[in-house]
Amino acid sequence: MPLRENRCRPSPRHELILRAALLAGEPTRRAYEEWRAQIDFQQIDLGTQPLLPLVAHNL
User: Fold this and answer.
1) Is 0.85 topped by the overall pTM?
2) Whether the Cβ atoms of residue 17 and residue 31 lie closer than 8 Å to each other
């Protein structure tokens, strides 16, 4: 089975929440606002949930 290049890459939504969790300053707020506009808090996946305290701390 050939290895696909994008297989381990985060989805665009996960990339946004990672930016909100790990960056500082204005980029954090922008990433969070863009991510928030795309999601429903009632359906946040299990991979995102542990990042939310980091995001809250950064905001």
Assistant:
1) no
2) yes
